[in-house]
Amino acid sequence: MARLKTIARRTFLIGSAAIAGGVAFGYYRLRQDPPNPLLKGLKAGEAAITPYVRVDAKGVTLITPRADKGQGSYSIQAHLIAEELDVDPHEVRIDPGPPNPAYFNSRIMDDSLPFTTIDDGIMARGARGGGEVLSRVLGMQITGGSSTVPDGYRKLRMAGAVARETLKEAAARRSGVSRSQLKTKDGQVILPDGKSVTYAELAVEAAQLAPVTDVTLRPEQEWRYIGKKMRRIDIVAKSTGTQQYGIDIRPDRVVYATVRANPGLGGTIKRYDASGAEKMRGVKKIVPIKDGVGVIADNTWRAFQAAAAIKIEWNDPPYPADSAGMWKVLENSFSKDLLDSRLRNDGDVEKALTGSSKPIEAEYRTPYLAHAPLEPMNAVVLYTKERLDIWTGTQIPVFLQGHAAKLTQLPEEKIYVHAQPIGGSFGARLDDTYALQAIELAMAMEGVPVKMTWSREENMGHDYPRPIQLSRAKGTVREGMVESMSIDMAGQSMGASWFNRLQAPVPPGPDTSSVNGIWDQPFAIPNFRVTGYRAKEMVPVSPWRSVGASGNGFHHGSFLDELIHAAGADPMAELIRLCNHEPSKKVLHTLRDVSAWKGSRIDDRRARGVALTLSFGVPMAQVVEVSDTPQGIKIDKVYAVCDVGRILDPVNFEAQVRGGIIWALGHAMNCELTYEKFAPVQTNFHLFEAMRFHQAPDIIVKGLELGGEVRGIGEPPVPPAAPALANAIFALTGKRVRELPLNKSVNFA
Amino acid sequence: MQLTINSNRYDLDVEPEMPLLWVLRDELGISGPKYGCGAGLCGACTVHIDGTAVRSCSINAGEVRGSITTIEGLGTPANLHVVQQAWIEHQVAQCGYCQSGQMMTAAALLSKTPDPSDSEIADAMDGNLCRCGTYTRIHSAVKTAAQMMKGK
Questions:
Q1: Which of A41, A200, A654, A684 has its CA 20 to 30 A from that of A168?
Q2: Other CB atoms closer than 10 Å to residue A286's CB: what's the count?
Q3: To the nearest 10°, the Cα dihedral for A594, A598, A603, A609?
Q4: Would you say A379 and A400 are in contact if contact means Cβ atoms under 8 Å apart?
Q5: Is A438 left (phi over 0), alpha (psi -120 to 50) or beta?
């Protein structure tokens, strides 16, 4: 058995060790992969050929460790494994697996590095390698950064191939026919005489074998799933109300709970009086928790009612109480001592500015924004002195396990995280405050499962938002062209706030998040400078769909459009002229053709705006078309073109692009979090609507496959939508809107 | 209190002001209707009462007069309602959390307006929020479901 474990430790992931081949010993040690977690707790008759494939007498289970928040990650992970394993993803079981370092994300750090995601130079590759090592050492099993596909594209197919060949080897030994003469199809090994044996029947024998690792991946001409229209594995469940989310878990003897924490995020609790709440129907226990108080009852609604009846006094958190004070902090942050980064400094901006008779200056603002997924944060927790079970949706299972161990004083291996499908996240479940609160309540109810649900109001107030950002931009034009552009950006560090909450090391160096989507853009403006100033931390913040670029795309794409209009140039033509990255240029050429671009003004009541943002390695360009109606400005159409290297599933690709654009436009038009007495004014969806059905435009999507690295598509559609819309509004009305949300400045139909 | 839900009768001991949603989810374990806002703003909890779309978070259990249908009663994986067939065909769902409510609203619309115009679809669906932004596919799926009903 010990030998089997040793062998298994050298399982399929040799693939990635081979990629890293030839490096120094110490580094090589770090490159080695953690053991296969599935081997622990394996029962007789079960085989775990790689960390991604488990086979037993009942059949095949595929392990899909990246969280599914709606972006279709379970489905794409299953299809990538199945492509090589030869199983129908709809006919096998899917299991997100345990939290484990083996499932570390090799690409999660890419966005935090001071190199553009398309930089293939030796320094950039070195830094990315370092990021991968860091992720491996820390066991960073994280879902985020549009990295599920880039991280898994090769790894998961290798897992499928190793499992397939190992099962074939088991069949070869049983039948006496050599492995090379065997074929596989739909979960079976096919012998030369046409007889077949199912994978399930081979489980016991396969478990005795050293995994076969001398495999090569199939050429794309043989692909059965990749590149074809896929059917999501969850589509029937999600179309019949039978999909079970974390919030639907209802174990026997469950009790229902909620919490109220300091509405000023990060503030503590002074005292509370629950004498009225204690007497309310169904209330079982009222429990103090970190920065708040929880109610355990026999029904969620009764818990909500009782929580609302508790009288609480709070201590103020350490930052300004209202939005005006928060903006003031940013306004005062453009100082030398807060200088954080200058990641771009081409040409001589100062010389261009002093040499111009008419430099253009502008100030841009983007607000705090909540993730506000429709499924409120929740967790079911069962605590005993021996173990802790947590059922919840999470993008950070390993961190949750560590935090739970600290909280309960149980060893990490006694913390069982059962990852659940998620009803939207957009980054919200990159934190685990809600789960830790549920654990605190469960510790007061030993042996009884506690289901904790945030009310929508609690969720709006405790959603670590996207940070506010303030930029001061200057630029010049000459002879009909953009000559210089300087953007100074002040913002609080998302990375510092989030990594500190995760109790993880804050990535060293400048805070890239506050300038991503600006400094790394593929435009060769002769004089181009981007400077980051690090404001002090205020409201605790976190990654929000497309992270830094989500707001910065607006600052960059809008100001560049201002300069282009000042130059008297055509926005599409000038973006193409300035572009110095071939795939981005092809994207712009295609967008110009697909949208039949003939200038930003169509007629006296219709106009267009264009923007391109390169984020997560994906150049994404959009044309937004608006019209003037008696009810207000209406978005009629959006054209979106991007390059992702290769489109794995055209159906979900289009869904992600359209959804990302609707997400971006809805928030750009209608949403902000503003603060009074440390808490957001927006307490529910009537004040935070984003986009509803009647505002959704036609969206024409064109994905290019230029053959570069395969990229993820969950986030890149977001950043260029807001500037493309604001640029269209300028073309229509002559009004340059420099602050989001846009509905503070214009009316929408 | 007695309620009829998906053709089953239930005897319940709850306060009449408890919203129907929490009777369904926590008292009876009928989890298709979802909690999203608790204030009739998002539509994730939509059910039918005698065929009319109602926000179950915003009607007290004691006020319900009529027969309740939830997404579980609209159709099942083995016996799909046309709206569910259309939702599958167009692969509408992303996270899927709002889709029970979206389908209940669409089914109620089509039962009263079998061939809705674009603006009738927009009016009916406007109260159902989708944070993933599946609106364009919802529109296509409602159109397809209307066609399928015509063919029946």
A1: A41
A2: 20
A3: 70
A4: no
A5: alpha
Residue type for position A570: D
Residues of chain A with pLDDT > 70, as a percent, come to: 95
| Domains, in order of start, for chain B | 2-74 (3.10.20.30), 82-151 (1.10.150.120)
Determine the CATH number of domain A247-317+377-453: 3.30.365.10
Helix A650-670 × helix A721-733 angle, to 10°: 50
Q: Is B78 on the interface with A (CB under 8 A)?
A: no
Cβ contact, residue pair B97, A70, below 8 Å: yes
- Which of B42, B95, B126 is facing A693, going by the closest CB pair? B126
- Binned at pLDDT 50, 70 and 90, residue B59 comes out as very high
Are A612 and A584 spatial neighbours (Cβ–Cβ below 8 Å)? yes
pLDDT value for A416 = 97
Summarize pLDDT for B99-138 with one digit per residue, the tens: 999 999 999 999 999 999 999 999 999 999 999 999 999 9
Provide the token pair at A600: 């930003």
Which of B20, B96, B56, B140 is CA-nearest to residue A299?
B20
Query: Against a cut of 0.80, is the pTM above it?
Result: yes
Q: Does B137 touch chain A (CB under 8 A)?
A: yes
Does the distance separating the beta carbons of A304 and B38 come in below 8 Å?
yes
- Whether residue A20 is predicted with pLDDT greater than 50 in this model: the reply is no
A333-370+464-744 maps to which CATH number?
Answer: 3.30.365.10
Alpha-carbon distance A657 to A546, whole Å?
12
* Chain segment A165-192, per-residue pLDDT in tens: 999 999 999 999 999 999 999 999 999 9
Q: Is the ipTM beyond the 0.90 threshold?
A: yes
- pLDDT of A353 strictly over 80: yes
Q: Does B93 touch chain A (CB under 8 A)?
A: yes
Topology adopted by domain A2-238: Aldehyde Oxidoreductase; domain 4 (3.30.365)
> Do A483 and A352 contact (CB within 8 A), yes or no?
yes
How crowded is the C-beta side of A236, counted as CA atoms within 13 Å?
A: 8
- Domain range summary for chain A, segments of one domain joined by +: 2-238, 247-317+377-453, 333-370+464-744
Report CB contact under 8 Å: A301, B22.
yes
Residue A154, token pair as written in the block: 């090769």
Spatial distance between the Cα atoms of A301 and A317, rounded to a whole number of angstroms: 29
Q: Identity (one letter) of the amino acid at B95? A: C
The yes-or-no answer to whether A247-317+377-453 and A333-370+464-744 have a common fold is: yes
Q: Which two tokens stand for residue A720?
A: 């260029």
Percent of chain A with pLDDT over 90: 85
> What is the rounded distance in angstroms from the CA atom of residue A325 to the CA atom of residue A323?
5
The whole-chain average pLDDT of chain A stands at 93
Beta bridge partners of A55: A47, A60
- Beta-carbon separation of B42 and A685 below 8 A: yes
Strands A450-453 and B52-55: unpaired
Alpha-carbon span A502 to A69, nearest angstrom: 20
pLDDT in tens, A711-724: 999 999 999 999 99
